[in-house]
Amino acid sequence: MGKLGDWRRAGALALAVMMGTAPLAAEAAPAVSGKNGKIEASGGTINDEESGFIEGAYTMPWGEEHGLQFDASVGSVDGDLTYGGAVHLFQRDPSSGLVGVYASYHNIDTGAFDVAIGRAALEGEYYSGRWTLSGMFGAEFGDISKGVFTIAEVSVYPIDNLRLYLGHHFTQGDEMGKLGAEWQVTSNANTGVAMFLEGRDGANGYDSVFLGLRMYFGDNKTLIRRHREDDPQIRMQEDFFAVDAACGDGSCSGTPAPVVATEEEDEQPTSGGSTVCPTFISTIAYDPCIEFMYGE
Fold first, then answer.
1. H or E, element range at 14
2. Disulfide-capable partner of 84 in 77, 96, 106, 119 (CB 3.0 to 4.6 Å)?
3. Where are the domains of the chain?
4. For residues 294 and 296, what is the distance between their CA atoms, to the nearest angstrom?
5. pLDDT in tens, 32-78
6. What are phi and psi of 8, to 5 degrees?
């Protein structure tokens, strides 16, 4: 009877599967648990110039397996305005990882030029216990040299509400490293509040340090769950190193800022026979009409 009973149970299960009355496997969690958002404010320095930013994102499900996120950023570096936006379209299994596409546009005022940078990339994340590997691989274009950029990060969550991470960024032939931490201080039914600190160090003397406050909107969750069930990272600040690297070697351009010439400046040589180049902008030898991005 034992073998006959086993065969009967197997036959009943096969019949139930064929009739659609028995699940083949546990159903995966959705790519985005529900509509959610975040907004953050940060302050610090880029190349010793005072800087501040306000950034935000809105994320929504697109079916069960896909998600869509819109990013926005506005800020100031040494009094010069920056602004931009981005979009993420992705497929995700919160238990294993994410794969998607990314596109962004950023306008960065360097003082002498408004430099526009665009990016289009593949992005991915891999989850394993308390560890996350994430990155991007794509193309950048605009008022900088067209080329390839990469971003790679490794994150660990020693506790559910603390993220420590280390990253590497390659763009315009130069490299940058970064180190940071984010701690969710509190979370309730509608919001979560986190503090973050990040430092960056790159080629040609590039450096930045930022301290900020991030507010999450959505369900009550730990930080690790927010990062794997809700919103991908906002990557807009990665663009500053690209522009700095491009302008540093003379391969950036843009819309010139208006210059009002004095009589003394009128006596100076012009660039292209038409543009007056004030002495306070002449900080790069290759073109006296381009001011180095954020520093001397």
1. helix 2-18
2. 106
3. 36-248
4. 7
5. 988 999 999 999 999 999 999 999 999 999 988 899 999 999 999 99
6. -65, -45
| Burial class of 171 by CB neighbour count within 10 A (0 to 12, 13 to 18, 19+) | buried
Contact 196, 224 (CB under 8 A): no
Per-residue pLDDT averaged across 191-204, rounded?
A: 95
Q: 36-248 belongs to which homologous superfamily? A: Inverse autotransporter, beta-domain (2.40.160.160)
Maximal CA-CA distance, the chain: 109
Query: Which residue's structure tokens are 């529900």?
Result: 34
Read off the pLDDT band of 6 (50, 70, 90): low
Contacts for 4 with CB less than 8 Å, ≥ 6 apart: none
Amino acid identity of residue 228, one-letter, is R
| Burial (Cβ within 10 Å: 0-12, 13-18, ≥19) of residue 93 | middle
